C-alpha cells in the first residue's frame, strides 16, 4: 500500500493506481490520496458524457450538468455506499444534475418535430441520409418529457434492467415500466412515418 501512495516521479500519478478497483479508488480519494478521483473519471468519462448528452437538451447544458455532477461526486464521495457500483453511483449523480438543470430552465420548450424538418425521401441511401435520420430520431427522443426520456435511455439505450434503472433513478420499478411504456408509445407515434420504406432510404 505504501508504494501506491508514493508519487510517480515522471507523470505525477500514484504507482499502480490503474490497478485499483473503482471502489478502492473512491476510498483512496476520500482518504486524500492524490490522482485517485482523476483516474476514476478517466475510466468513466466517456460513459458519463454520453449520459449527460442523452439526458440534456443540448451540448451546453450537458457540459454544465456534467461539471456540476462531477463536483458533487468529488465533494460527496464519502457518502458512497458499497452495495452499488461506483459507475452506477456516478451515473445517477449525472442524471440528477441534468434533470435539475432542466427544471431550472423550465421556460425552454421541448423540441417538436416540424413537418418541414423531416428528411425528404432519397433514392440512394448515403451518409447524408443516415445523418438526417439520426437527427429526426434524436428530435423525437428529446421531445419526450425528461422523466420518460431518462427511463427509456437507461433501459433501452444503456441496457440497464428495469430494476437497476429504478434503483439508479430512485423510483419504483412500476414507475420505470410505465415511463418506458409511455415513452415508447410517443416515439412510435412520432416516428410512424419511418415505416414507409421510402422515407428510410
Task: Output the structural class.
Answer: mainly alpha
Tally of DSSP helical segments:
8
Anisotropy-based shape? elongated
Using the CA coordinates, give the radius of gyration. Answer: 20 Å
Helix proportion range:
55-70%
Number of strands: 0
Largest sheet: none
Any overview of this molecule?
The chain is mainly α. 60% of the residues lie in helices and 0% in strands. α3 crosses α4, α6 (146-157) packs across α7 (162-169) and α7 (162-169) crosses α8. The protein is elongated and about 55 Å long. The protein starts with 21 loop residues before the first helix and ends in an 11-residue tail after the last helix.
Provide a short characterization of the protein structure.
This protein is mainly α and 201 residues long. It has helices at residues 22-30, 36-55, 59-76, 86-104, 127-142, 146-157, 162-169, 173-190.
Keywords:
201 residues; disordered N terminus; mainly alpha; 0% strand
Layout: helices, strands, pairs:
Layout (H helix, E strand, L loop, with lengths): L21 H9 L5 H20 L3 H18 L9 H19 L22 H16 L3 H12 L4 H8 L3 H18 L11
Helix pairs in contact: 1-2, 2-3, 2-4, 3-4, 6-7, 6-8, 7-8
Amino acid at each position: 500500500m505504501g508504494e501506491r501512495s508514493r508519487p510517480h516521479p515522471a507523470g505525477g500519478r500514484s504507482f499502480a493506481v490503474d490497478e485499483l478497483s473503482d471502489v478502492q479508488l473512491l476510498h483512496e480519494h476520500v482518504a486524500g490520496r492524490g490522482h485517485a478521483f482523476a483516474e476514476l473519471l478517466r475510466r468513466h468519462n466517456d460513459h458519463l458524457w454520453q449520459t449527460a448528452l442523452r439526458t440534456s437538451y443540448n451540448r451546453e447544458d450537458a457540459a454544465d450538468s456534467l461539471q456540476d455532477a462531477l463536483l458533487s461526486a468529488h465533494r460527496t464521495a464519502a457518502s458512497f455506499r458499497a452495495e452499488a457500483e461506483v459507475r452506477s453511483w456516478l451515473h445517477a449523480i449525472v442524471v440528477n444534475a441534468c434533470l435539475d438543470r432542466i427544471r431550472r430552465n423550465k421556460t425552454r420548450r421541448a423540441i417538436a418535430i416540424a413537418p418541414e424538418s423531416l428528411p425528404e425521401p432519397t433514392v440512394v441511401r448515403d451518409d447524408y441520409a443516415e445523418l438526417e435520420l439520426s437527427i429526426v430520431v434524436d428530435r423525437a427522443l428529446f421531445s419526450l418529457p425528461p422523466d420518460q426520456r431518462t427511463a427509456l435511455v437507461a433501459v433501452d439505450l444503456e441496457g440497464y434492467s428495469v430494476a437497476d434503472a429504478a434503483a439508479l433513478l430512485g423510483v419504483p420499478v412500476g414507475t420505470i415500466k410505465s415511463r418506458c411504456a409511455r415513452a415508447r408509445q410517443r416515439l412510435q407515434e412520432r416516428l410512424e412515418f419511418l415505416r414507409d420504406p421510402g422515407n428510410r432510404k
